[in-house]
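Hi there,

I know you've been waiting on this one. I reran it after we fixed the sequence typo, so this is the corrected version. Both the input and the resulting structure follow.
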Amino acid sequence: MTTLDRTVNVKEQAKKAQVASKSLSLLTTAEKNEALLIIADELEKETEFILNENKKDLDRGIEKGFTEAFMDRLRLTEDRVKDFANGLREVAELEDPVGEVISDWNLDNGMQVEQVRVPLGVIGMIYEARPNVTVDATGLALKSGNAIVLKGGSNALNSNKGIVRVIHEALPKTKIPAEAVQLIATTDREATSQLFTMKEHIDVLIPRGGGALINTVVNNATVPVLETGVGNCHIYFDETAQPKKAIDILINAKTDRPAVCNAVETLIVHNKWLEENKDLLEKSLADNNIKVHGDDHIVNTFKEAVPADEDDWSNEYLGLEIAIKTVNNTQEAIDHIETYGTKHSEAIITEDAKSASLFRNLVDAAAVYHNASTRFTDGSALGFGAEIGISTQKLHARGPMGLPALTTIKYCMTGTGQIR
C-alpha cells in the first residue's frame, strides 16, 4: 500500500467517524448505556479470542526483548479483560453530562440564555502499549456522545484489532453506528501524523503514552490537543511523618504497579526523619527489591545505593527503581519538585498542618496528596468509572479525564422575536 493510499484511508476513517458523531449526539442516555452494557458483555464473551490476539503481541515483545515494565503494560489477562468490561458497566452507571444545563439566566430584553454541555465531536486517541485504553477511551467517548478514531501503538496492534473487532460485532445490536469507533490498524507512523492536521474532521487529539509520543503530538498537531503527561511523581517525607504510615504509602506507590504513570519515582526525605528512620527505610526498600539512586547523603547512608545523576531526578523509571533526595525543609522539597516534576501527582507525608498547607498551595500539579499514595490519580479510583487520560495541562481539563472532560459548552438562546 502506498503512502497516498494510507493517507486516503485515514482521512476516510476520520470522515466516517465525523458523520457517525452527528447521529451519536442525538442518542438518549438510555440508548448509550444499553450499548455500553452490550459491548461489555461481548468483550467478556470473547475473552479467549482477545487473549489469543494479545498473545501474538506478547510473543513478539519477547522476541524483541521488551522490558518487563513494557510487557506488563501490554499484557492482558482474564482478570484485566473482566476489569475493562466492568469499567464500561461503571461508565454506564455514571451521570450523562450531555445536555446538562450548567447555568441559565434571562436578559433584560426577555431572551433566555442556557449554557449547555455538548459532545466535542470526534476524538483522535493516540496511545502506546496498553490495550485496555482501547476499551476505556471508547466507552468514555461513546457515553459522552463522541465518535473516536483510535491509533494504538504498533506493539499492541493485534490486541487492539481484536478488541475493536469485538466492539464492531457488538455495535449493530445497539443504536450506535459502528462507524463511530475507528481503529487505524497499521504500523506506519505516517498514518498517525495524518491525524495531526485533520482539523476539518477531528475535533481534539488526546495523546497517551511516554514523553516522546506526547511531545511529538504537541509539537506537530494543528488539531487542538488535550495533553496528558508523563508521571515523574514525588513523595516527600516531612520531619513529622509517622514512619510506618510513610513507608507503607511509599511501598504501595512504588510497587503496586510500577509501570503506570501514577507510581512514585522520587522520594524526597527530610534529613532529621532520615536520621531517625534510615534503617527501617533501607530495609523496606531492600525487602521489595527496589534499586536506590541517591544523592551523596543517601549513598553514604545506604549500603546498596548508587549515585544519582541529573537524569535520575527527571527519570520515569516505570520499574522497581527510585531516586532519593534529602532536604532540610518543606520549601526545599517544593523547589525540587518545581525543577523536576511533570505536574502529575505529588504527595507529602506529614503530621504538621502548616507543612501540609504549604505543600498543597505551592506545588503545581494536577493532583496533590497529604498522607496518601499517588496511586489514586486514576479515573476509576476517583469514581469516574474509567479515564481517557490524565491531563497535566491547565486549560479545559486537568487530572483524570472522565466524561465531563470530553464535552464542551454551547450557548442556547430562546427569544420571542428580539432584535439588536
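Quick highlight: Residues 247 and 281 are 7 Å apart (CA to CA).

Best,
R. S.
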